[in-house]
TrEMBL record, chain A:
Coiled coil stretches, renumbered: none
Domain of life: Bacteria
Keyword set includes Hydrolase: no
Identification of the protein by name: Carbon monoxide dehydrogenase
Matching PROSITE patterns: FAD_PCMH
GO molecular function: FAD binding; oxidoreductase activity
Entry keyword set: FAD, Flavoprotein, Oxidoreductase
Organism of provenance: Intrasporangium oryzae NRRL B-24470
Automatic annotation (TrEMBL), chain B:
Ranges for region Disordered: 280-307
Similarity comment: family membership: Belongs to the xanthine dehydrogenase family.
Domain of life, source organism: Bacteria
Annotated organism of origin: Intrasporangium oryzae NRRL B-24470
Keywords carried by this UniProt record: Iron, Metal-binding, Molybdenum, Oxidoreductase
Protein name in UniProt: Xanthine dehydrogenase
GO molecular function, one term: 2 iron, 2 sulfur cluster binding
Pfam families, per the entry: Fer2_2 (PF01799), MoCoBD_1 (PF02738), MoCoBD_2 (PF20256)
Domain 2Fe-2S ferredoxin-type residue range list: 1-77
SMART domains with a match to the protein in the record: Ald_Xan_dh_C (SM01008)
Length: 285, 863
């Protein structure tokens, strides 16, 4: 199908982009990598009057070091995140999750910020960003910025703290240098959207888990963080048995979707199995 | 806005208004139609281009992103006539069949190859690395083994220089993007048309309101009933596709909704809404099978049973008695299958040009140019001499393109009205909704064996086919043709519902019967502690299959299989076997012309090549007679007009067996005329025509069913599969599949192997992934895109080994019969048996989704 006609603007600065959004209000739609927006436009699920293309704003691209954080521009593509040494050194969980996103073609165009704001619960970057305790910088009308914690960022299915007239500009991730990490993704055919996936990153001290962070993909309308499991893992030896016991309750209280890939009970079961595997791998056990 | 990207090293002007995808601009404005659009959603990779050197899907790339960019499409990969090593490797290792996905694969593989070589020299990447690198590409024909081989060979540096060999004579056009499919055809003054479809499952429709100035026609049947969601209602044409879409949406279609039923269980109950109410309506029910539909009685929405008996009453009474006495020799199982969608990558498409009232030219994506020419002439009451059908390249069909379908009729009608060419190409949503499916259904198998000898005493197969509004299932009947001639009875019932119609799909009924029968056989073997191959060998009178049993017994995969249920632990491996039986069809009226033109050998036939390799078969047949390279022979195929003699359709596995010996005979006659030397332009004008005719022996071609001539004997296949089941998640990985195929002599080995590999990959899809799903509240198809309807990709491909048993068909001219269908029948069943061997739990319902497998294992554990 052919998308409905719309106007197109391509600002070169964040301020210009915000001005364009302010001018067109809810008639405007932001184009990042286009990998989710174009299918939506084609299916006419959304018929914006104006598309604001962020592809020509250099300030939104790239990764930099900011002391105890790394800062990723919202328009940095998956491929660039994957190739970046700062990310693989200080937030290897994100690298590992991004490596499972779709396929090389999509990773060349899709952007980290675009995926986070799109907030598809089956997307693979929400859970690691949540688990890593990232802060998300949101710019609003007039160029003011505010910082939202990942815990507050994901509000609902396809809904985030980024409001009308606002843009996500940066993802600030506290350095997790030296942490082991693993993203365990379950699919039926290769390179599908996650049916369930688990993001785990662990700091070990001499065979014992000192700190752990666990995020869940597609176990609810938003990515979830398994805080009780994180706490239960602290002080445990990195053994199959200990980890199995610590993660047993990971799906408690979750309300995952039921669909053609399985019902919510099956997803809860998968979450337990996958968390065990993810934590084991992250702990290097 | 206007900008000038560099496209294949040329500066091109693009004028866009912001809403176009890069793919649209590349195809429609730049005319670079090598870039194909299949899924339109970034899943299949057919539209892959290089954007500033990176592979991206052009269907999801806004055209505006081409500004200041450097673009390379498939047409720009070769350096003039000098192909890229990846292209040469694809040609030599035959990494393609229909070719529709090939441009995307080539571009993606070039990007990977160039980077790999820069970083790793000539080190060979492993399968996993290749699968990851080409993860965003799908091939419905299942050419993945050839693609693995090609990419690995190119990375090893084997194709850096020299021309290399060409396995498939039309490969060069396909790897460079110059092959023109119906979807690529654009004619001057052409209109675009879009079909308006019903979005409800049952309705009565009043008179159509066509806004003034709109060119549109009604497509409803005479009773003006809608019987399934997606049924064509009308069609509108306009100057652009966008306008046509709006025009179709603006047509006034007064629907009066009616009660409908999509669940076959509910449809079978008294009082259910009737899909067909009268005898006349039932007569017009579409035929979902390939052959003739024999008359059967109706009861509500249930048609049949059609009975296929051999001492049927005896079989029934034996089974009934065994049930009462609780005999151990009676194994009874019930199986369920889901509808599988053909998913041809080139959608159904047609360009009809009736601007000259005396000549109708039709480009269409069809499996039968000749059959369609005659069908069009009949449908429009025309002299067939005035009709020409063209299908130079066909992007897959798998059975769904054997008949005259709506888009063609609609385009012709609109062209007649407008006296302009009219193009209709279905989008992916339409293709996955409205162009047919392999019907799902239910089969109950009762197999009674002697407890001591294990000889068969009786076989009952009761099937219910769920072909939506279509009828004509032969699933049960096909089960009767395989093992011992003992008392047996098949009862085939069609249950019609308000669901999209089933259509012939590669071995219609075959994989479905085998899923049930071959698993029941496996269950008998298990119950009596017999080797499943030995048990089949005991029952089987087919000598060709006996040869395959001998081959399979010697396979290490088979010899080292574990005892069923013997494994514990998370990952369990299992090996399963299943046999296949299929009919041999031939088109005895086939004629092939071999001539010399401009000093070159030319072979002509009114047939087509949908990726199965008929062009190559003809070229090889002629080349063999003259001892030249197949690529030296000019093949004229993909066209039917009054000047051409009869050619076979690509269906019923009958193309190669009809073409090969006929081409050899014609070539031999030309050889006799030109003498022993080389063919030169001095021989121009020499020509010979040969006709296939029947086979040698008593009954050359014993009988004809629905225009298909059924030859004597059955073709055979055997599949041995190894799986690994993750018992914690329920996921099955297919590790290895051996396919033994007994169809006699193989005329184009590389292509035959590729086709057999593809049938295994389609079997993996059927067994584990593929399932048409309808919304029960509306009847709409939910699996109408390639994200929700998942076909296997490179990463899901097992290691495949194909073995050809080439003896046993000597009485057939050429010494071999077709293989497209027989190779498709037993892969899924062998996977079912492998899962049983691994876990001790038998999967009876297709597809074997992980959640179902896990639930099955748990239920077994509780028991």
């Amino acid at each position: 199908m052919i998308p409905a006609s719309f106007d197109y603007v391509a600002p070169t600065t964040v301020d210009e982009a915000l001005a364009a959004l302010a001018e067109h209000g809810d008639d405007a739609k932001v184009l990042a990598g286009g990998q989710s927006l174009l299918p939506i436009l084609r299916m006419r699920l959304n018929a914006p009057g104006v598309v604001v293309d962020l592809g020509r704003i250099p300030d939104l691209q790239g990764v930099c070091d900011d002391g105890d954080h790394i800062v990723i521009g919202a328009m940095t593509t998956y491929a660039a995140v994957l190739a970046d040494d700062l990310v693989s050194t200080h937030a290897s969980l994100l690298s590992k999750a991004v490596a499972t996103v779709a396929d090389p073609q999509i990773r060349h165009r899709g952007t980290l910020g675009g995926a986070l704001v799109h907030a598809d619960p089956a997307g693979d970057v929400g859970a690691p960003v949540l688990a890593l305790g990232a802060e998300l910088v949101v710019a609003g009308p007039g160029g003011q910025t505010r910082t939202v914690t990942a815990d507050d960022f994901f509000e609902d299915l396809f809904t985030t703290a980024v409001g009308e007239g606002e843009l996500l500009t940066q993802i600030r991730i506290p350095k997790h240098t030296g942490w082991g990490a693993h993203y365990e993704k379950f699919v039926r055919v290769s390179h599908q959207w996650s049916i369930v996936a688990v993001a785990a990153t662990v700091r070990s001290e001499g065979g014992t888990i000192a700190e752990a962070r666990v995020g869940l993909t597609n176990m609810g309308s938003t990515p979830l963080r398994a805080v009780s499991v994180e706490n239960a893992l602290v002080g445990q030896p990195a053994t199959d048995e200990a980890i199995r016991a610590a993660v047993a309750s990971v799906a408690d209280g979750t309300n995952p979707p039921s669909d053609l890939n399985g019902d919510s009970d099956y997803r809860r079961h998968l979450a337990t199995v996958l968390t065990r595997r993810a934590v084991l791998a992250a702990a290097g056990a | 806005m206007e900008f000038t990207p560099s496209v294949n090293d040329e500066s091109r002007v693009a004028r866009v208004d912001g809403h176009e995808s890069a793919a649209q601009v590349i195809r429609d404005d730049f005319g670079l139609t090598g870039t194909k659009v299949v899924c339109g959603g970034g899943v299949c990779g057919a539209c892959t281009i290089l954007l500033d050197g990176d592979p991206v899907v052009s269907c999801l790339t806004p055209a505006t992103r081409l500004r200041d960019a450097t673009v390379t499409t498939v047409e720009g990969i070769a350096d003039g006539d000098d192909l890229h090593p990846v292209q040469r490797a694809f040609l030599e290792h035959d990494g393609l069949q229909c070719g529709y996905c090939t441009p995307g694969f080539v571009v993606g593989a070039v990007a990977f190859h160039d980077r790999w070589r820069a970083e790793h020299g000539t080190t060979e990447p492993d399968r996993h690395t290749i699968a990851d690198a080409l993860a965003g590409h799908l091939c419905r024909c299942g050419s993945y083994e050839g693609i693995f081989r090609a990419v690995a060979a190119a990375c090893r540096g084997e194709h850096d220089g020299g021309a290399g060999t060409v396995a498939r004579v039309d490969g060069p056009e396909k790897v460079t993007g110059s092959a023109v499919y119906t979807t690529d055809v654009t004619l001057p003054g052409m209109l675009y048309a879009v079909i308006r479809r019903a979005d409800i499952a049952a309705a009565r429709v009043g008179p159509l309101t066509i806004p003034p100035g709109t060119l549109a026609v009604d497509l409803l049947p005479p009773d003006r009933r809608v019987r399934w969601a997606g049924q064509p209602v009308a069609v509108a044409a306009a100057e652009t596709l966008d306008e046509a879409r709006r025009a179709a949406a603006a047509l006034g279609v007064p629907f009066t909704p009616l009660a409908f039923v999509t669940d076959p269980e509910i449809a079978s109950r008294p009082g259910a809404p009737l899909v067909y109410e009268t005898k006349d309506e039932r007569k017009r029910a579409p035929n979902g099978s390939e052959g003739t539909v024999f008359p059967a009685s109706w009861k509500g929405n249930r048609r049949g049973p059609s009975r296929t008996p051999y001492l049927g009453s005896l079989a029934k009474s034996r089974v009934a008695k065994a049930r009462t006495t609780g005999r151990r020799g009676l194994v009874e199982l019930e199986f369920h299958t889901a509808a599988q969608l053909h998913t041809s990558f080139e959608p159904h498409a047609c360009v009809a040009d009736w601007s000259d009232p005396d000549r109708l030219r039709v480009w269409m994506s069809t499996q039968g140019v000749e059959a369609m020419r005659l069908a069009i002439a009949e449908r429009f009451d025309l002299d067939p001499a005035k009709v020409e059908v063209v299908a130079d390249y066909v992007g897959g069909g798998f059975g769904s393109k054997l008949s005259l379908t709506t888009e063609t009729v609609a385009a012709i009608r609109l062209s007649r009205l407008s006296r302009r060419p009219v193009k209709i190409a279905l989008d992916r949503h339409e293709e996955l909704t409205a162009t047919g499916n392999r019907p799902g259904g239910r089969s109950r198998v009762s197999l009674l064996v002697d407890e001591r000898t294990h000889g068969i005493e009786a076989l009952l197969v009761d099937t219910e086919s769920h072909g939506g509004v279509a009828i004509g299932s032969t699933v049960g009947a096909l089960s009767m043709l395989v093992y011992e001639r003992t008392p047996r009875l098949a009862r085939d019932v069609d249950v019609v519902t308000n669901a999209p119609p089933g259509a012939p799909f590669r071995g219609p009924g075959g994989p479905t019967y085998a899923w049930a029968l071959e698993q029941t056989v496996d269950e008998v073997a298990h119950r009596f502690g017999r080797d499943p191959i030995d048990l089949r060998a005991q029952w089987d009178g087919n000598e060709k299959r006996q040869a395959l049993y001998r081959w399979a017994r010697a396979l290490p995969t088979w010899r080292e299989r574990p005892a069923t249920g013997s494994q514990t632990g998370r990952f369990r491996r299992g090996v399963g076997v299943a046999a296949a039986n299929w009919l041999y069809f031939v088109d005895a009226d086939t004629e092939v012309v071999v001539s010399v033109e401009g000093g070159r050998l030319v072979v002509t036939c009114a047939s087509q090549d949908m990726g199965t390799g008929s062009r190559t078969v003809l070229a090889r047949a002629v080349a063999g007679v003259f001892d030249v390279e197949p690529t030296d022979v000019v093949v004229r195929l993909g066209r039917s007009d009054a000047s051409l003699a009869h050619g076979p359709a690509s269906g019923g596995s009958r193309t190669t067996v009809s073409l090969w010996s006929t081409a050899v005979e014609a070539a031999t006659a030309v050889r006799a005329q030109v003498g022993a030397g080389a063919v030169t332009s001095a021989h121009d004008g020499v020509s010979a025509t040969a006709r296939r005719g029947g086979d040698r022996g008593l009954r050359a071609v014993p009988f004809t069913v629905g225009g298909i001539q059924v030859g004597r004997g059955f073709s055979a296949a055997l599949h041995v599969s190894e799986v690994e089941v993750d018992t914690r998640t329920g996921r099955t990985r297919v590790l290895r599949v051996h396919g033994g195929i007994a169809v006699g002599r193989i005329h184009a080995p590389a292509l035959a192997r590729s086709q057999c590999e593809g049938s295994i990959i389609q079997g993996v899809g059927l067994a584990l992934h593929e399932q048409q799903v309808l919304d029960p509240h509306s009847g709409l198809t939910l699996t109408a895109n390639l994200e929700d309807y998942r076909i296997p990709q490179l990463g899901d491909t097992p290691e495949i080994d194909i073995h050809f048993h080439e003896e046993g068909w000597d009485r057939v001219p050429g010494g071999g019969v077709g293989l497209g269908e027989v190779a498709t029948i037993s892969p899924a069943a062998s996977l079912g048996n492998a899962i049983f061997n691994a876990t001790g739990w038998r999967p009876t319902t297709l597809p074997v989704r992980p959640d179902r497998l896990l639930a099955g294992l748990r239920a077994d554990a509780v028991r």
